[in-house]
Amino acid sequence: MLELRPILSALWRHKISALLIALQLGLTLAIVSNALVVIDERTERISRPTGVAVEDINSFGFLAIPEDYDKFEAFRLDLDMIRSLPGVASATISNHVPLSGSGSASGFYDAPNMEVGATSANYYTVDEHFIDALGMKLTAGRGFSPEEVMQVGATSSERPKVAVVTQKFADEMFPEGNALGNAFFMGGDDHPIEIVGIVERNLGPWPNSSVAGRGVFYPAIMDQWFYYIVRAEPGQRDAVLKLVEEKLAERDPNRVINADTLQEQKDQYYAGDNTMIKVLSSVVILLTFIVALGVVGLTVFWITQRQKQIGVRRALGATRVAIGRYFLLENLIIAATGILLGFAAAQIFNGFLVREFDQPALPLVVTLTCALGLLGVSLAAALVPAIRAANISPATATRSV
């Protein structure tokens, strides 16, 4: 404690440089703690269970060249052929591909002719193979029978009578837990659609949207929007992608085939989140390095300025430990001041992010962890110069006296 007064006196004489380091530490704490929260939120978002077998699924679409092309006949022939190919576990046809960023959504009600209180959800048109083809888990009820699957053309007026829904949709539409066997209504009309099955999870085409996880599957095949979704046996995805693409082109050359893996589509959808994680991680590392560099530079500068003072203290009996402790304590005071400022700045900055950009709130434990980490970095950065100061001999320091 006897060292505290001369340390404070020395800091006051160099208050501008000390304040700059403290402000740098505070700003770093505010930015790093909020950046880590965003990184954690984006990482958790990307790593959520999707409900489908992403690593095994390919999707295929085609553009027919003839204007009078019979798409429904093509669907039947293509799917029969695809399901017979080696390495194919299952295949279905759907109007949209999960995790692709392209889909359809609507409002659903638990009573007819309602206009308010809708539950928004994604919806798909699929055939009877969709649960197996997507690798989803049926938790209640059943899937579709072939007889329930409709063919829906541009002028068709037929509407589905049954549906399979996700657990999240079932829980929100019927919170009392009696979704199976109950009916819901689409778009505020009076046409009932009975829930015959419930699947555990499907994030849908927009995993980052408010409707993610709420899904409705209808037994229908549409000739306006369609994709073949093919699940390969484990480890066979890439081989199946190439084989199916070749066989589709061989079976009917009067069309242009496009093919993608579901993993590629998922990666493309989350590209912005991955970029954000990389950028913020780089910012965290860079700011931490700059703080360490600033502390080292300032400590070395002060040691150089005080060589004579250090030599005198050593000549008067100060130990190396006392000299090293002096500079570490000096650094600790600066760091603690900066961290206190950073705590306040972190909360203010987070309040702005929550209010303007709907970012997650900053937990106190994250700020404390970052504060301790920066304190450790600051002390570690000052350690080598402090040891160097402790090793200055009285003769060397006072040679010019």
TrEMBL record:
UniProt keyword list: ATP-binding, Cell membrane, Hydrolase, Membrane, Nucleotide-binding, Transmembrane, Transmembrane helix
Record localization: Cell membrane
Annotated signal peptide: none
Record Pfam families: FtsX (PF02687), MacB_PCD (PF12704)
Highest taxon above the source species: Bacteria
Membrane-spanning segments: 283-305, 326-349, 361-384
Span of domain MacB-like periplasmic core: 75-241
A GO MF label: transmembrane transporter activity
ABC3 transporter permease C-terminal domain residues: 282-394
GO cellular component, one term: plasma membrane
Bilayer disposition of the protein: Multi-pass membrane protein
This enzyme's EC code(s): 3.6.3.-
Entry-linked InterPro entries: ABC3_permease_C, MacB_PCD, Macrolide_Exporter_MacB
Family per record: Belongs to the ABC-4 integral membrane protein family.
Name under which the protein is recorded: Macrolide export ATP-binding/permease protein MacB
